[in-house]
């Protein structure tokens, strides 16, 4: 491994440990009996909305995502409503790349668009996601974006629960880049 790759690897490991400490400190990691959006039961819950509403933790997430985006060929930061919006907004501000918000459904009023922001067929997006489990919700958003002709090669997730999202997104031609995995977070 070259010195640069080694430094990057060490930096990412340091960032991971810093983020784990911040997520725990802001109360984003909770234990008990929870039902996830997928309907699955879980003994732990990762509430990234707690992190998104804590300015220090949100800045940390934005800096770490921006660090990874430097190695990606993208020109738009995207987030799916609701959880991805504050994350994508913070990352957009950190990278100076335009923001695109992907709505879950078309509104019956206003522009009646699935998007807030501009998108063109030649755009290359990275999507921000709070927590990935199977990757189903972000995969739906990727399909909506691809209908415009734009591409989504990467999804950055704050936490991957390691329950199939990496594989499911790979099948869709998208790489999942988790800032932290559940196994790291729960150690």
From TrEMBL:
Pathway where it operates: Pyrimidine metabolism; UMP biosynthesis via de novo pathway; UMP from orotate: step 1/2
Keyword Metal-binding: no
GO BP field: 'de novo' UMP biosynthetic process; pyrimidine nucleobase biosynthetic process
Catalytic activity: orotidine 5'-phosphate + diphosphate = orotate + 5-phospho-alpha-D-ribose 1-diphosphate
Keywords for this protein: Glycosyltransferase, Magnesium, Pyrimidine biosynthesis, Transferase
Cofactor names: Mg(2+)
Top EC category: transferase
Superkingdom per UniProt: Archaea
Pfam families named among the record's database cross-references: Pribosyltran
Alphabetized InterPro entries for the sequence: OPRT (IPR023031), Or_phspho_trans_dom (IPR004467), PRTase-like (IPR029057), PRTase_dom (IPR000836)
Signal peptide coordinates: none
Annotated EC: 2.4.2.10
Residues that coordinate or bind orotate: 133, 161
Domain Phosphoribosyltransferase: 55-167
GO function term, MF aspect, one: orotate phosphoribosyltransferase activity
Positions contributing to 5-phospho-alpha-D-ribose 1-diphosphate binding: 103-104, 107, 129-137
KW DNA repair (keyword) present: no
HAMAP family: PyrE
PANTHER family given in the database record: OROTATE PHOSPHORIBOSYLTRANSFERASE (PTHR19278), URIDINE 5'-MONOPHOSPHATE SYNTHASE (PTHR19278:SF9)
Subunit and interaction comment: Homodimer.
Family in the record: Belongs to the purine/pyrimidine phosphoribosyltransferase family. PyrE subfamily.
Reported function: Catalyzes the transfer of a ribosyl phosphate group from 5-phosphoribose 1-diphosphate to orotate, leading to the formation of orotidine monophosphate (OMP).
Protein name: Orotate phosphoribosyltransferase
Annotated gene: pyrE
């Amino acid at each position: 491994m070259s010195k640069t790759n080694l430094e990057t690897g060490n930096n990412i490991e340091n960032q991971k440990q810093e983020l784990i400490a911040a997520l725990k400190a802001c109360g984003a990691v909770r234990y008990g009996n929870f039902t996830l959006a997928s309907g699955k039961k879980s003994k732990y819950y990762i509430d990234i909305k707690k992190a998104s509403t804590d300015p220090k933790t949100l800045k940390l997430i934005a800096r770490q995502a921006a660090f990874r985006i430097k190695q990606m060929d993208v020109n738009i930061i995207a987030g799916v409503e609701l959880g991805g919006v504050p994350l994508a907004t913070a990352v957009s501000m950190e990278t100076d790349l335009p923001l695109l918000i992907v709505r879950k459904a078309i509104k019956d009023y206003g522009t009646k668009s699935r998007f807030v922001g501009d998108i063109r067929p030649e755009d290359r997006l990275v999507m921000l996601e709070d927590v990935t489990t199977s990757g189903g919700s972000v995969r739906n958003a990727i399909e909506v974006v691809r209908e415009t002709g734009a591409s989504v090669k990467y999804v950055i997730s704050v936490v991957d629960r390691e329950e199939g999202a990496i594989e499911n997104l790979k099948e869709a031609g998208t790489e999942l880049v988790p800032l932290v995995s559940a196994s790291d977070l729960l150690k």
